[in-house]
Amino acid sequence: QGDPATMQQSPHYEDALIEVYDWLAERIAFAEAAGIARSRIIVDPGIGFGKTLRHNLQLLNGLALFHGLGCPILLGASRKRIIGALSNEAPTDERLGGSIALALHGAQAGVQLLRVHDVPETVQAVRIWRGLRDEALTPRL
């Protein structure tokens, strides 16, 4: 909502999850009408951009809905303000734990792409999470 200079000034959604989903669906249709194949489109719900804490939480808790758009989902929540807001106003350089928590939440929701600042730590966390999940899904013979 708005441009970078104004997007954080009183952002308003009746239902952030549905409104962002609908907006992305419109943008996908626009891109396809311009000749861009859906297979070349990635969607990003825009955590932190023109949204309040409540809006961001609605989007994060409803991430799986975006699979209905038929495009890979990108989650860029690393070091975002939401982490500071939920962790006693932790400064940006002290948000690694929160960034990893959001990355794992995204992985659990099936997000295909994670935009992160702390690549080795996030890769390690996702590998451990995936190993735990895969072992739990392995049938015992």
Write up this protein.
This protein is an all-alpha fold and 141 residues long. The chain has one domain (16-137): TIM Barrel (Alpha-Beta Barrel). 46% of the residues lie in helices and 3% in strands. The protein is built from five helices and two strands; from the N terminus they run H-H-E-H-H-E-H. The protein has a two-stranded parallel sheet. It starts with 15 loop residues before the first helix and ends with a helix.
Average pLDDT value?
A: 94
Main CATH class:
Alpha Beta
| CATH-derived architecture | Alpha-Beta Barrel
The multimeric state of the shown protein is single chain
Question: Per DSSP, what share of the residues sits in E-state strands of 2 or more residues?
Answer: under 5%
- Which stretches are low in confidence, meaning pLDDT under 50 for 5 or more residues running? none
Keywords:
single chain; 141 residues; mainly alpha; TIM Barrel; two-stranded parallel sheet; 5 helices; 2 strands; 46% helix; globular
Brief account:
The protein is an all-alpha fold and 141 residues long. It has one domain: TIM Barrel, CATH 3.20.20.
Topology of this protein?
Elements: H1 16-33, H2 53-61, E1 74-75, H3 81-86, H4 96-108, E2 113-114, H5 119-137
Helix pairs in contact: 4-5
